[in-house]
Amino acid sequence: MGSILASSMPTMNLVVADHTERFDRYLHDIWPDCSRAKIARWISDGVVTVNGEVRKASFPIKVGMEIAWDELPDREPHNLTPSDIPIPIIFEDASFMVVNKPRGMATHPAPGLKEATLVNALLGRQESRLSTGSAEFRPGIVHRLDKETTGLLMVAKSDTAHEALAKQIEEKSALRRYLGICQGSLPEPRLRIEAPIARDVHDRRKMAVHPKGKPAVTHILRLRHDSTSSLFAAQLETGRTHQIRVHLQAAGYPIIGDASYARGDWAKGPMQLHAAMLSVNHPETGERLTFHADPPEDFQHWTRAELDALINWDLA
């Protein structure tokens, strides 16, 4: 087994792999007294990375790959207590629902997260059953929005619906569009940002453009701009963590109010990013359904005409 080395970052531990093995099994070689369940949770939470990237438990480790982690947490159980928190419901039937997630609410529980999440609010709705989700602490959650991002999010009410909706995201047939305001004047009416994204090696809470990251493509439509800021629409072709935020920051146009990726006064105030449009095929009938949601009251300087331009945007 590879030896543990000190990296250039404080508190970071590093193992350089010296044999091939599944990721989870390699970690069990490193920590033989640790339960496989705990190792699996560390992997799914991104606590341990491979070459700076979060990987699945089945990922094949090869000689020379770097396995890194900060201090390993003593995990607290995820909080799945139902909460009586009203959530705006845009659509609901027996298969799935579309909700309008408010600002400041995490999508699902995480270790150390004390406040109620969207999952807790959904569990508090006695009339709603939820799919088993992609993990035990994410019932119903097909995709996620960042805590400070507002807007439309799908929730599956059966495992069949969950599988069908997740497949649409994977196959890129689900359409997700965002309204945002960024620092600076976007140089072109239309932009296509293609840059791989990986976990930031300096701060694992953040993401960064990195040549060894996962492929990521974001389409940008400039709706209005002046010398200091731009109102834009964004459409995801892939769905990486923090994708729009990271791509625009890397291009030199961080989103206003983004405390993680903007700087100075531009990082202050509510983050100006809203999931305004969602279009999917119904998981049972196949009917194409399209949903819209206005941004919250703290979203700056948008007009109905500009939101209509986002809705009617033709990428062709």
Question: Would you mind describing this structure in some detail?
Answer:
The protein is globular. The protein folds into 3 domains: 4-69, Structural Genomics Hypothetical 15.5 Kd Protein In mrcA-pckA Intergenic Region, Chain A, CATH 3.10.290; 79-171, Pseudouridine synthase (2-Layer Sandwich); 172-316, Pseudouridine synthase, CATH 3.30.2350. α1 (23-30) crosses α2. The chain contains 6 helices and 17 strands. The chain starts with a strand and ends in a 5-residue tail after the last helix. It is an alpha+beta fold and 316 residues long. Strands 7, 8, 9, 10, 11, 14, 15, 16 and 17 form a 9-stranded mixed sheet that branches. The longest helix is centred in the middle third of the chain and has 12 residues, at 159-170. Helices cover 16% and strands 27% of the residues.
Summarize the structure.
The protein is α+β, with helices and mostly antiparallel strands. The chain folds into three domains: 4-69, RNA-binding S4 domain (Structural Genomics Hypothetical 15.5 Kd Protein In mrcA-pckA Intergenic Region, Chain A, Roll); 79-171, Pseudouridine synthase (2-Layer Sandwich); 172-316, Pseudouridine synthase (2-Layer Sandwich). It is built from six helices and 17 strands.
